[in-house]
C-alpha cells in the first residue's frame, strides 16, 4: 500500500493536495516585511535618479509634411476610407441591409424587421418636424442628408443619426420665439399667413443648422471634444427628462385641436400649460377622439408585440398599421371637413435645391446654436462610447464633433434642422445585425424613396395621430423620473444636480436651462472642494498604514506627532479653511498662543529699555543725588538679569521658549501634513503652507510634508517654495517615513525665534 501511495495512488495525491493547500493558506497569512531606509524627497530623487521630463512640442508634429502624415490626416478626417476597403461583405452586408431597413430614422421603434422600419419612418419624421415648428416634409429632409454625411465622416459604427425629440423641441423654441404667429397675422380676418410663417421658420432652422455645424466642426478641429465631460450623466438625464416634459406639453395643442399663442423664453412652458387648461372648453372633439384612438391602438399593439414576441417571426408593424388606418379613415370619412381635424396637408415630392443661409440671422441664433451643438454632441458621444465599449472599438470624440458638424452644416444648406442621434434607433440598428454605418446609408436611401415617391400619399394623415405617436414614445424618457429614487439612495449630490437641471430647464427653457445646469454643476464641484473631509490620522497597529482615528477605532495617534490630511487638493478656494481646520484639529489655539508669546517678548523688550533709560538717568544724576547702596545693588541686579535675558532672547532660544515665558506647550512636537490628495498647487496654497511652517515653528512644533506626487513637487520648486528653512528634507516619501523621522528627531525649541531689537 505504501508503494502504491508513493507511486501516485489516490490517497497520496489527496495528501499532497492537502499539504499544498495548507502551504498556500500559510503564505497568505504570512506578513511581508520590507527593509529600507527612511526616504525624504531629496534622498528619493537621488535613489531613483529623478529628472524632469522634457515636454514635446505638439505643433512640430502638426507642421510635419510627409506622405505618411498626409495619409494619416486623410484617414483621420475621412474614416470611411479606413474601414470600407476592408469591409467583410459576406459577413456583414446582409446584417447591415436588414438593419438599415429596420431602423426607425424618425421614431422609437419597438422591434426589428424591414416592416418595422416602414412602420416607423414616416409618422415620426413628420412629427419631429412639427416639434421643430416646421412643415412636415422638412423632417424627411433632415433624415436623408445628415445621415449620408455621417456615413462618410463618423467613427461610431452603431449610432443612428437623425432627428431627435430633444433637438427638435430646442429648434422649435427658437423658431417659435423668432417667428411667432403674431408676426404673420393677415389684416382682414386676423388669420395667420402660414405660408409666410413657414418660410421664415425654415430660413431660421436652416441658418441655425449651419451655425450649429460651424460650432461643432470648429470645436472638433481644435480638439475641444472634452467639453462633453462637463455634462455629467445626472445632468444629461435630468435635462432630457425636462425636455420630454416640454415635448409632451407642446403636443397637447394637437391632441385637443387648440390654437395657442406662440411663447418663448423663461416660464413659456408654464404659460403654455395654463393656456391649454384655460382653453380646454374650446377643444375639438373629433381631434381628441382621433388622438385617443391612435394612442390606445399604439399601446395595445406594443403590448401584443411584447407578449407574442417569441411566437411571431416579425413584430406587428404597429406604426405602419396606425399610419395606414388613420390616413385611410381620414380620407374616407373626411375628418378635416366634417369634424375639423387638422391634417398634415401638402407634402411636396422630390428634393429641393441647396440654399445659402441668411448670415444676418447668425447674431440672433449664436447662443441657441452653441447650446444645441453641445447637447447634440453630448448625446451622440455618450451613445457612441457605450456601443464602442460593448463591441471593442474606439470612438474619436473630436472626429465625432467634426462628423456631426458636417452633417448639420450640409443639412442646413439643404434646409434641414439640427440633428443628433437616438438611443432607441441605435439599439435597433445594433440588435438587428448592423455592424457599420452601411446600415445608415441604406436607411438614407430608403428615406430618399419616401421623399421622391411616397410622401404625397400621406397628405390626409391627422396631426393628432402624430402627436399621439410622440406622446406614446416619450415613455422611455419619462421613465427617467425613477432616477430620483435611485439617486436618493446612491448619491444625493447627483440627485441635487438632476433636480436643479430639471427645474431650471422647465422654468428657463432649454437653452438657459442648460447654461444654468452646467453652471450649477461646476459650482457644486467647487463647493465640494471647498468643504472636503479633514482628518487626524492614527497608525493601524503593527502596520505602516495611517487612517482617520474618528473612523477606525483601532487606529492610534502616534505620541508627540500629529498627522493631518485633507481629502481634496488645496488651492485658493479652500486654502484658508485648510489652515484654520488644521489648527482646530490639533487642539491648540495657535494664533492666540503666538499672540501671547509676542506680547510677553514685547513686554520684556520694553522693560529692558526702561531699565536702561533709568540707569542712564541715574548716571547723569549720580553726583547730585546720592543713591543708597541697597537700592543701587537692587537696580543693578535687576538690570543685569533683564539684560542677560534680552541677550539670551537674541542669541539662544532658551529665553524665548514657551516654557521660559510661562506659556502652555503643545502636547506634540511634530506635525506631518499628508499631501497625497494634492493634484496641483497655486500661489495661495504655497503661501498657506509657508505660513503653516512659520506659525507652528513659533510654538515649537516642527512641520513635515509627506506623499507628494512628482508634478506637485515640480510645482513647489517652480513656486520657490523650498529655501534655507524649508528644504526637500522636510518632504518624505510616505507618511510613515515622516512619522519615524519625527520620532527620532523631536524638537526642543523653535528654529527661528522672534527677534528682539
TrEMBL record:
<dbReference type="InterPro" id="IPR018045">
    <property type="entry name" value="S04_transporter_CS"/>
</dbReference>
<feature type="region of interest" description="Disordered">
    <location>
        <begin position="623"/>
        <end position="656"/>
    </location>
</feature>
<keyword id="KW-0175">Coiled coil</keyword>
<feature type="transmembrane region" description="Helical">
    <location>
        <begin position="128"/>
        <end position="153"/>
    </location>
</feature>
<feature type="transmembrane region" description="Helical">
    <location>
        <begin position="207"/>
        <end position="231"/>
    </location>
</feature>
<feature type="domain" description="STAS">
    <location>
        <begin position="551"/>
        <end position="742"/>
    </location>
</feature>
<feature type="transmembrane region" description="Helical">
    <location>
        <begin position="401"/>
        <end position="420"/>
    </location>
</feature>
<feature type="transmembrane region" description="Helical">
    <location>
        <begin position="369"/>
        <end position="389"/>
    </location>
</feature>
<dbReference type="InterPro" id="IPR001902">
    <property type="entry name" value="SLC26A/SulP_fam"/>
</dbReference>
<feature type="transmembrane region" description="Helical">
    <location>
        <begin position="284"/>
        <end position="304"/>
    </location>
</feature>
<dbReference type="InterPro" id="IPR002645">
    <property type="entry name" value="STAS_dom"/>
</dbReference>
<keyword id="KW-0472">Membrane</keyword>
<dbReference type="GO" id="GO:0008271">
    <property type="term" value="F:secondary active sulfate transmembrane transporter activity"/>
</dbReference>
<dbReference type="Pfam" id="PF01740">
    <property type="entry name" value="STAS"/>
</dbReference>
<dbReference type="InterPro" id="IPR011547">
    <property type="entry name" value="SLC26A/SulP_dom"/>
</dbReference>
<feature type="transmembrane region" description="Helical">
    <location>
        <begin position="464"/>
        <end position="489"/>
    </location>
</feature>
<keyword id="KW-0812">Transmembrane</keyword>
<feature type="transmembrane region" description="Helical">
    <location>
        <begin position="432"/>
        <end position="452"/>
    </location>
</feature>
<dbReference type="Pfam" id="PF00916">
    <property type="entry name" value="Sulfate_transp"/>
</dbReference>
<feature type="coiled-coil region">
    <location>
        <begin position="594"/>
        <end position="621"/>
    </location>
</feature>
<dbReference type="InterPro" id="IPR036513">
    <property type="entry name" value="STAS_dom_sf"/>
</dbReference>
<feature type="transmembrane region" description="Helical">
    <location>
        <begin position="316"/>
        <end position="334"/>
    </location>
</feature>
<dbReference type="GO" id="GO:0016020">
    <property type="term" value="C:membrane"/>
</dbReference>
<keyword id="KW-1133">Transmembrane helix</keyword>
<feature type="transmembrane region" description="Helical">
    <location>
        <begin position="495"/>
        <end position="527"/>
    </location>
</feature>
<protein>
    <submittedName>
        <fullName>Solute carrier family 26 member 6</fullName>
    </submittedName>
</protein>
Amino acid at each position: 500500500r505504501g508503494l502504491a501511495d508513493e507511486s501516485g495512488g489516490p490517497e497520496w495525491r489527496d495528501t499532497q493536495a492537502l499539504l499544498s493547500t495548507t502551504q498556500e493558506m500559510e503564505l497568505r497569512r504570512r506578513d511581508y516585511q520590507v527593509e529600507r531606509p527612511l526616504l525624504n524627497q531629496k534622498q528619493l530623487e537621488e535613489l531613483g535618479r529623478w529628472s524632469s521630463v522634457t515636454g514635446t512640442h505638439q505643433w512640430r508634429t502638426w507642421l510635419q509634411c510627409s506622405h505618411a502624415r498626409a495619409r494619416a490626416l486623410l484617414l483621420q478626417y475621412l474614416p470611411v476610407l479606413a474601414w470600407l476597403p476592408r469591409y467583410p461583405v459576406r459577413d456583414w452586408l446582409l446584417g447591415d441591409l436588414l438593419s438599415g431597413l429596420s431602423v426607425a430614422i424618425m421614431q422609437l421603434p419597438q422591434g426589428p424587421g424591414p416592416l418595422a422600419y416602414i412602420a416607423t419612418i414616416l409618422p415620426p419624421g413628420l412629427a419631429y418636424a412639427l416639434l421643430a415648428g416646421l412643415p412636415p416634409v422638412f423632417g424627411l429632409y433632415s433624415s436623408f442628408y445628415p445621415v449620408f454625411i455621417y456615413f462618410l465622416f463618423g467613427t461610431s459604427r452603431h449610432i443612428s443619426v437623425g432627428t431627435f425629440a430633444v433637438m427638435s423641441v430646442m429648434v422649435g423654441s427658437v423658431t417659435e420665439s423668432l417667428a411667432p404667429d403674431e408676426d404673420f397675422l393677415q389684416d382682414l380676418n386676423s388669420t395667420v399667413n402660414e405660408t409666410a410663417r413657414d418660410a421664415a421658420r425654415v430660413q431660421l432652422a436652416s441658418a441655425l443648422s449651419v451655425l450649429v455645424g460651424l460650432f461643432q466642426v470648429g470645436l472638433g478641429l481644435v480638439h475641444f471634444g472634452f467639453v462633453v465631460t462637463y455634462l455629467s450623466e445626472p445632468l444629461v438625464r435630468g435635462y432630457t427628462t425636462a425636455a420630454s416634459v416640454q415635448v409632451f406639453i407642446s403636443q397637447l395643442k394637437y391632441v385637443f385641436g387648440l390654437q395657442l399663442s406662440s411663447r418663448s423664453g423663461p416660464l413659456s412652458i408654464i404659460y403654455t400649460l395654463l393656456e391649454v387648461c384655460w382653453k380646454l372648453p374650446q377643444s375639438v372633439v373629433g381631434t381628441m377622439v382621433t388622438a385617443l384612438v391612435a394612442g390606445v391602438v399604439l399601446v395595445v399593439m406594443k403590448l401584443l408585440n411584447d407578449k407574442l414576441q417569441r411566437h411571431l417571426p416579425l413584430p406587428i408593424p404597429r406604426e405602419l398599421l396606425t399610419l395606414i388606418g388613420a390616413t385611410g379613415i381620414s380620407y374616407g370619412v373626411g375628418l378635416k371637413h366634417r369634424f375639423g381635424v387638422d391634417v398634415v396637408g401638402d407634402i411636396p415630392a422630390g428634393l429641393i435645391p441647396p440654399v445659402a443661409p441668411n448670415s444676418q440671422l447668425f447674431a440672433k441664433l449664436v447662443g441657441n446654436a452653441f447650446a444645441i451643438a453641445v447637447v447634440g454632441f453630448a448625446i451622440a458621444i455618450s451613445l457612441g462610447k457605450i456601443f464602442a465599449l460593448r463591441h471593442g472599438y474606439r470612438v474619436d470624440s473630436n472626429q465625432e464633433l467634426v462628423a456631426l458638424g458636417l452633417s448639420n452644416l450640409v443639412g442646413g444648406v439643404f434646409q434641414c434642422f439640427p440633428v443628433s442621434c437616438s438611443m432607441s434607433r441605435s439599439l435597433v440598428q445594433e440588435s438587428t445585425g448592423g455592424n457599420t454605418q452601411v446600415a445608415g446609408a441604406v436607411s438614407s436611401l430608403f428615406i430618399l424613396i419616401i421623399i421622391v415617391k411616397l410622401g404625397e400619399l400621406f397628405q390626409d394623415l391627422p396631426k393628432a395621430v402624430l402627436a399621439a405617436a410622440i406622446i406614446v414614445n416619450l415613455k422611455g424618457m419619462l421613465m427617467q423620473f425613477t432616477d430620483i429614487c435611485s439617486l436618493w439612495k446612491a448619491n444625493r449630490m447627483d440627485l441635487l444636480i438632476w433636480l436643479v437641471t430639471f427645474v431650471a430647464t422647465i422654468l428657463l427653457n432649454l437653452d438657459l436651462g442648460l447654461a444654468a445646469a452646467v453652471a450649477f454643476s461646476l459650482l457644486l464641484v467647487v463647493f465640494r472642494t471647498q468643504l472636503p473631509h479633514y482628518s487626524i490620522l492614527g497608525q493601524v497597529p503593527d502596520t505602516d498604514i495611517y487612517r482617520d482615528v474618528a473612523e477606525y477605532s483601532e487606529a492610534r495617534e502616534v505620541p508627540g506627532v500629529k498627522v493631518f490630511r485633507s481629502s481634496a487638493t488645496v488651492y485658493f478656494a479652500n486654502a484658508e479653511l485648510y489652515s484654520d481646520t488644521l489648527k482646530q484639529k490639533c487642539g491648540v489655539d495657535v494664533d492666540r498662543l503666538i499672540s501671547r508669546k509676542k506680547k510677553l517678548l514685547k513686554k520684556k523688550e520694553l522693560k529692558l529699555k526702561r531699565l536702561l533709560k533709568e540707569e542712564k538717568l541715574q548716571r547723569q544724576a549720580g553726583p547730585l543725588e546720592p543713591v543708597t547702596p541697597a537700592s543701587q545693588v537692587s537696580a543693578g541686579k535687576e538690570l543685569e538679569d533683564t539684560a542677560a535675558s534680552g541677550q539670551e532672547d537674541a542669541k539662544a532660544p532658551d529665553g524665548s521658549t514657551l516654557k521660559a515665558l510661562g506659556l502652555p506647550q503643545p502636547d506634540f512636537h511634530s506635525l506631518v501634513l499628508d499631501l497625497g490628495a494634492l493634484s496641483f498647487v497655486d500661489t495661495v496654497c504655497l503661501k498657506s503652507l509657508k505660513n503653516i511652517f512659520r506659525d507652528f515653528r513659533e510654538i515649537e512644533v516642527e512641520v513635515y510634508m509627506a506623499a507628494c506626487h512628482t508634478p506637485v513637487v515640480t510645482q513647489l520648486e517652480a513656486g520657490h517654495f523650498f529655501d534655507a528653512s524649508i528644504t526637500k528634507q522636510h518632504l518624505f516619501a510616505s507618511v510613515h517615513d515622516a512619522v519615524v523621522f519625527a520620532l527620532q528627531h523631536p524638537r526642543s525649541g523653535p528654529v527661528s525665534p522672534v527677534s528682539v531689537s
